[in-house]
Design a protein that fits this description.
The structure is a single chain. By secondary structure, the protein is mostly helical. The chain has eleven helices and no strands. The protein has helices spanning 2-18, 25-42, 44-54, 72-83, 92-119, 126-160, 170-181, 190-222, 233-263, 284-295, 304-350. Helix 2 crosses helix 11 and helix 5 packs antiparallel against helix 6 (126-160).
Length: 355
């Protein structure tokens, strides 16, 4: 009987620990930042490959000047041969510094959008309820981009420069860009980036939400007893993978244009091909038109393969890691707080005077 009662008490404790409190903005920011750091490191080499293709002006597989990079495999081998394995992680420091505020702000903004939607009854209106994840994603993406943009530009600059390096560190790159273009040089291409990130984030979060709901409905049809079960880690990973891939494919031409803005004026070695001049990136319309005319339609999809291969696992890892951190961080903090309270209580009791 005692064992049975003991088991019940243990079950009650477990149930209390699993009764998740509403995550605070700070907790959401921490989970988002940690998830972004994990994802950024995992897909770092694919990001470098994508950027090298995107800023390469020479058409691939056409007449004229030969392009330095012709395929993913050839680019991978060339970078390792010329720059070593570390070349595949060029721009990692500013990339991580970009990721922390970006993902933190993104998930906090998303959470706040959802709270506002509930507060104003948007969830009760079917036509708005469907659009809300897409709108929330767009707002969250724009807010995160504005909060972290200089690190994005520095990451792209360091990843694109190759060898010999124009800048040896993130600090040196920042100083060089400010010296050449003023502080506003750190925000070159911000407008194009916001224009690119809003549809990308809208599709990423909107499709992720739609795919998850579809999986939940399918699970409920197959096994009604599991209709209220939370999404599994595998479901979250798979939905994030599909959402990231489709979102990146749909917005890739804007990403290519954005990279041209970011590296304009970078004096990298001529062995990497023609340089992007500041005069070539005055407007988005001009950039897209020039790419289409000089490099053909495939030019707007340069780096699409490593970009999609990167975006899919990046989104999957980010969503899965975010869900994991958001679940475990509150429990870890609650456990530590409870342990500290117990310790203080014991200490006070031992110091109480005897009567």
């Amino acid at each position: 009987m005692a064992r049975r009662n003991g088991k019940k008490k243990k079950d009650i404790v477990v149930e209390q620990e699993q009764a998740a409190v509403e995550p605070t903005p700070a907790m959401t920011a921490a989970a988002g930042a940690l998830a972004g750091v994990v994802a950024r490191f995992v897909v770092g080499p694919l990001d470098v490959l994508k950027i090298r293709f995107q800023v390469q002006l020479e058409p691939i597989g056409r007449g004229g000047l030969p392009s330095k990079y012709t395929s993913m495999r050839q680019a991978l081998v060339t970078i390792v041969k010329e720059e070593g394995v570390k070349g595949l992680w060029r721009g990692t420091v500013p990339g991580q510094l970009l990721t922390v505020p970006y993902t933190a702000v993104q998930f906090v903004a998303l959470q706040q959008c959802r709270h506002l939607a509930q507060q104003y009854g948007v969830q009760d209106k079917p036509h708005l309820r469907t659009a809300m994840p897409f709108l929330s994603g767009a707002v969250a993406g724009a807010a995160a981009t504005i909060a972290s943009y200089p690190f994005d530009l520095l990451r792209t600059t360091l990843a694109a420069q190759g060898e010999p390096a124009v800048y040896r560190s993130m600090t040196e790159a920042a100083r060089g860009i400010v010296k050449q273009n003023g502080v506003r040089g750190l925000y070159r291409g911000l407008g194009v980036t916001v224009l690119e990130i809003m549809p990308y984030a809208a599709l990423q979060f909107g499709l992720f939400d739609a795919f998850n709901k579809a999986c939940d409905r399918a699970r409920a049809r197959m096994d009604p007893a599991r209709a209220d079960d939370p999404a599994s880690g595998l479901q979250i990973f798979a939905c994030g993978l599909a959402a990231g891939m489709l979102a990146k494919l749909a917005t890739h031409p804007l990403d290519v244009a954005k990279k041209r803005f970011q590296v304009a004026g970078l004096q990298r070695s001529v062995s990497y091909g023609q340089r992007v001049t500041p005069e070539a990136v005055r407007t988005l319309k001009q950039v897209v038109h020039d790419i289409a005319v000089k490099e053909g339609l495939p030019g707007l999809f340069k780096g699409a393969m490593p970009s999609i291969i990167k975006a899919a696992p990046s989104a999957a890892v980010t969503f899965a890691a975010y869900d994991w951190f958001l679940y475990h961080l509150p429990r870890l903090l609650n456990h530590n707080a409870a342990a500290a309270a117990d310790g203080n209580g014991s200490s006070s009791a031992s110091q109480r005077p005897l009567h």
